[in-house]
Amino acid sequence: MLDRSTRSHIERELGQLDRLLTDYRDLLHVESDEPGLVDRTALSSVVQSFYQGVESIFQLIAKRVDEDMPGSADWHRQLLRQMATSTDKRPAVITPVLLDRMESFLGFRHLARHTYPFLLNWSRMRHLVEELGPVFALFRQDVENFITVMSTPEDHN
């Protein structure tokens, strides 16, 4: 079960992700073939922030529900896969379809954090920018379903 604090924290993070996509809505609607350096840098930041918010929710669930946070060098990937797997304490948080889509965001996050923005290839990040809204909608749906399943009847009052 989810305690109120954990549920509240997850809902707050979902709200922050929603705000991220709302506040940068105009930037995310790229109309040119390739945005300039400043816009690409900003788009990179939005994509990274999106995955960071997703990962914050995953970390919270791993620590407070699973009581098992990966600790190896590839913990980011392990955490993502952990959230797509049910345990004796909870159902899977995300579907296998969303897992596949999220792996691209994780890969980009790693690349963008370890390279200069001017080296980022627009053709490799364009699909992530275009997928941000649809992937967030799936993520929100999966997490809200998870919250519903993991909540006690008193939480619905």
Question: Strand-and-helix sequence, N→C?
Answer: HHHHHH
CATH topology: Four Helix Bundle (Hemerythrin (Met), subunit A)
Determine the fraction of residues in helical runs and give it as a percent range: over 70%
Per CATH, the architecture is Up-down Bundle
Number of domains: 1
Structure in words:
The structure is a single chain. With 157 residues, this protein is an all-alpha fold. It has a single domain (4-151), classed as bsu32300-like (Four Helix Bundle (Hemerythrin (Met), subunit A)), CATH 1.20.120. The protein is 70% helix and 0% strand. The mean pLDDT is 94.
Characteristics:
0% strand; Four Helix Bundle (Hemerythrin (Met), subunit A); 6 helices; 157 residues; 70% helix; mainly alpha
Topology:
Blueprint: H1 4-23, H2 25-28, H3 37-66, H4 75-83, H5 96-113, H6 122-150
What is this structure, in a nutshell?
This protein has helices spanning 4-23, 25-28, 37-66, 75-83, 96-113, 122-150. The longest helix is centred in the N-terminal third of the chain and has 30 residues, at 37-66.
